[in-house]
Protein 1
Amino acid sequence: MKTVFLLMAQYDGKAVVPIDIVCNDYFAPLTSQTLVRKISAGEIALPLVRMESSQKGAKGVHIEDLARYIDARRAAAVKECEQLCS
């Protein structure tokens, strides 16, 4: 099953999910401020959608980008598992 469809179901069809919700669901125990800092520093390869040009504007993650990130992390985990179990 495609990850993006699962995320669509999880987030009630929203295209962009607020960063605090994404942080709580997938990056706990990080705070949303720490997650934004890590994304901005390039430590986490996840595009951050800013709804306004202002730094204080709402921030979120598009579900297609989140799905790609989750799929990439899964692929890395599968590769590691195969190397360890072979």
Protein 2
Amino acid sequence: MADTELTDLNAFLRVADAGGFRAAAYRHGVSASSLSDAVQRLEETTGTRLFNRTTRSVRTTDAGQRFLDKLRPALAEIGTALDDLSGGDGPGGRLKLDVPGIVARHILPPIVDAFLLANPRVSLEISVTEGLIDVMAAGCDAGIRYSEHLSADMMAVPIGPKRQRYVVVASPGYLASHGKPLHPRDLTGHAGIGHLFPSGRVHPWEFERDGERFTVQPRERLITGSSDIQIAAALSGHGVLLTFEELVAVHLERGELVPLLQDWPQEFAGPQLYFPRAHRKDAALSAFVRFVGDHPIAQY
């Protein structure tokens, strides 16, 4: 295959992953016009329209998506072969992950540090998105989520703590004015600080102990998808907050927030790294999956 043809294939892959010519150009430090020319040459060579272009979006056509699905592992194999020829030490390439905020803030940093040290030829690109997404459609190689519902072509392994928990907290000033809830049912009389999911939903708070289950919906004084705003509101005494323990650990230690309903522990399984079954064709992703499974820092 001629160099120009391989360049055009890479250009097509970059535009598809970035979701546009300008985004791909910015990400890879090239001009948008050069990417456009390369894709146009590829379309003329194959006689197939690969993208549907509008002023607001660039999306692969059905034929373009089928081509992309076959092209991605093929280019990864070529990259691996070139790495072998160049005598590189260890796997190389770029790995793109999408993770929720709690993972980005409290779980992933030590894992990223150790992985980059162990794999100097791998580059990481990490986006932070709340809620469920199709990582493949988003141009990512893998994702990290809680209780992910996986499709048949995906796999998952634990990453981070095996168990985590939610805590209910409020400021001392709020409790002095409104009283301390002693049972989940008491929360219905309190102002709540709710979490707004990307779907637009605000889930009720669920509690379970010894087979006894309660679902309550506090009177929401504030609803937001930002954990920083939620915590700031709780610290200022605007209501009761249900959140990840890691997010408020410092404030609990300082006495700025008070834990509530501790006899109703809310533990749940830790996050999962999920990825395609064909991950072994991608050197960088395969290296990360092995690292997560082999290193205690990724299973603390």
Protein 3
Amino acid sequence: MSAPTLAHLRGQTAKLAELTERRAATSEARKSGRADTRPARKMPLMRKYEVLSQDDDGNLRSSFHMAPANPFFEAAFSAFARGTALDTPQGPRAIEDLCPGDLIDTTEMGPQPVQWVGSMQIIPNAPIADPALGRLTRIMANSFGVHRPMSDVVAGPGARILQRPAHLRDLASTGPVFTPIRNAVDGMSVFEVTPPAPVTVYHLCLPRHATIKAAGLEFESYHPGMGIERIMGHNMLTLFLSLFPHIDESADFGPLARPRMSSKPDQARDVA
């Protein structure tokens, strides 16, 4: 190995002197109270989402994505707890057994093919933006009338059920609307539970937004709401749509099958 040149030694000495000066300046700033005490910027919470879809040849494709752990993203993956049986032309089938291409019954259009199945895990005590996103909702049999539902149903925080909210029942012109499941909690026959262990939750997309059934109780298929391009920045919208391989743009989700209620019970209908 050749000996270091004089220029190289001078360069190394200059770098060492500069580093020493920086350390001395930092130490002096701390002693005088001039050091930067601003808190470090917090990184956004992220979550792993699983997507089951079909490629252009009709082959099943499973993919994993890291995306923000916020209510908007999580609502797309958290309507039904593992084991929830949905109505299909062949009879009830557990949500985890449904794949893109399988048919599922809808109130508005009859049997429709599943296009997309998304899933994630609710993990006890994990850091999340909203504590409500870490809870499930148990709906006891007959909570909303005879055979509604026929047996207990466990829904995730992203679920919406079809019902007429109590504060709208005096309006004769108001029919049932899709209502966030947490708005139906009464602490007696519908109540929230925190799972003691990780639970996988699911949601699914159909060609169009529709009403689907689980044990006789009516839920909605997934739809992000109208006008999401107005409330999400371009980069965030691009990331969100990348979770849906069958969607090219937000308009491809189509119209809402029925009105939707805001997540806040005191607000009017929310179709955004």
Protein 4
Amino acid sequence: MNKKVYIGMTADIMHPGLIHIINEGTKYGDVIIGLLTDKAIAEHKRLPYLTYEQRKEVVENIKGVSEVIPQEDWSYVNNLKKIKPDFIIHGDDWLTGSLRDVRKQVFETMREIGGKVIEIPYTQGINSSSLDKDIKAIGTTPDVRLRSLKRLINAKPIVRIIEAHDGLCGLIIENVEIQKGDTRKVFDGMWSSSLTDSTSKGKPDIEAVDLTTRLQDLNNILECTTKPIIFDGDTGGKIEHFIFTVRTLERHGISAIIIEDKIGLKKNSLFGTDVIQMQDSIDGFCNKIKAGKDAQVTDDFMIIARIESLIAGKPMSDALERAFAYVQAGADGIMIHSKNKSGEDIKEFCLAFRNKYTHIPIIVVPTTYDHIYESELQKWGVNIVIYANHMLRAAYPAMVNVARTILENERAQEVRPFCMPIKEILELIPGTK
């Protein structure tokens, strides 16, 4: 019986370095590839361009590979204990960086099961991160972007979305990340907010900016980013118009639209009962959801129902009755909204909804209850958290501060600490050089 050789990999971008590792593995025995699933990868690296099934098909057809099995965790330990390989092979790039702890676990586990760790020199001139950056610079396609939101929901404990109202916001969201231990923290996608779209144009948030204008601005974001976008569809308008909105957004590669169950002239929900909030009937809104679902072409586009019952001062029972009806009508997710600062009503809703539906995504917008951590929202059953207006809210006071400081000092020297250097501005936008 041949000895077993374990090699863990993502295999999203196959390059000579990975082939070299596989070839080395064949010298010691039968090569078993532990192919990391989307879920194993998502908290540590970007989501692969290819699905698990696509990556598996590629790796299975590489010479020297005997078997491909899923690796469900970032850690190798569970698979190593399960299959008890004689050898595990890894490039020596894990001696430093975020994989050091993984390496330590592997050595401990292999000693425990009586196996050996073989480290081979990292292939010079081949860098997955650089290859990834090159591919990212090319951009993405509408269908790949469209599918990515559902993949993220399935792969991550909670999907983190933030508002973008122009291309510059999009670039920030695309590139800002922090490392916490071996976990990579990023924004997973963008929220195209009607509030910030209209405010950035100096117009009130009453659906005054038409779909054509919003799509022109949205195109600026689409051209310089690759992450999924959720579109704020307000009420969705008339059913006859909503059908065309769905088709247009889907064609552009937008992953989802969120529509609220209100009627009449839009009033921002954060005014709550200070203004009259008129809700649609359950049947009326269900018909709109059904019409939208019938209009879409793919199974990947999502129509998410936003419930305004708590905003309008109605009881929790009304919010839940609507949520259940909207799911039955075909809604792909439920967004529950509230201006209550405690967040307790959101928690109550989420826990009650999860008792009936375990897999329908819940979306929240913690603008007023911003003291609650994402980890707590996750415990309530939340799948997507949207930071709905923070980019614009941050930009406005910064710009006012710069303008006032110039007026006060009658020159611009004092605002240098508040401004990016011109050189960095020029380097910020791809293709400037």
